[in-house]
């Protein structure tokens, strides 16, 4: 219990500090980006699933966050990022009986999706394999902010019934795993970069003893858009043109 409380405090402090840095970066982005540092906005798509939840399929979602790149040297870059919208979960799950017995008959033909929302902090080390292409690998820790099952069914008169069930008590507060991927920079200095990653969860996120061994995994694509930019590089590019 003490370890969980300590981890909660640490991650909440990280989120708060990162949020402050985001506000600073939005105002002073031009000054924060330089020859060694890049700071920007991450936007992209998630394609996730949860293991051992019965029949299910990958579920799409949108991710949003901030990225920070420190250029150790020409070959190695350190890339911590903070996703303050990082959806995981699964869709196409088998319908189960809910605590609301009056709705179970209505929902027996419903489609069910499980939405797990997180703050997520991946920290990867990038290695340049050639040109502007990097491979990367590192740990990723996440703090759950929401967990819900959404039942959707269309009735005979085309009316849609949507029932949302809170399942936060069934899931642990934290998730931890490893992420790896490939990054392609479109410009050498302070340009947009495209990243495709795969996240593999190492922690069983379920607290439900009847449905244990549930692990998150996700393919996610992000476009990193620098805030401000490397003024020196821009000036050099204008001169060279």
Brief summary:
The protein is of the alpha+beta class and 241 residues long. The chain has three helices and nine strands; from the N terminus they run H-E-E-E-H-E-E-E-E-E-E-H. It has one domain: Porin (Beta Barrel).
Task: Give your account of this protein's structure.
The protein is elongated. It has a single domain (2-240), classed as Porin (Beta Barrel). By secondary structure, the chain is of the alpha+beta class. The chain has three helices and nine strands; from the N terminus they run H-E-E-E-H-E-E-E-E-E-E-H. Strands 1-2-3-4-5-7-8-9 form an eight-stranded antiparallel β-barrel.
Oligomer: single chain
Mean pLDDT: 83
CATH fold category name: Porin
Radius of gyration from CA coordinates: 21 Å
The number of domains: 1
Beta-strand content bin:
over 45%
Secondary-structure element series: HEEEHEEEEEEH
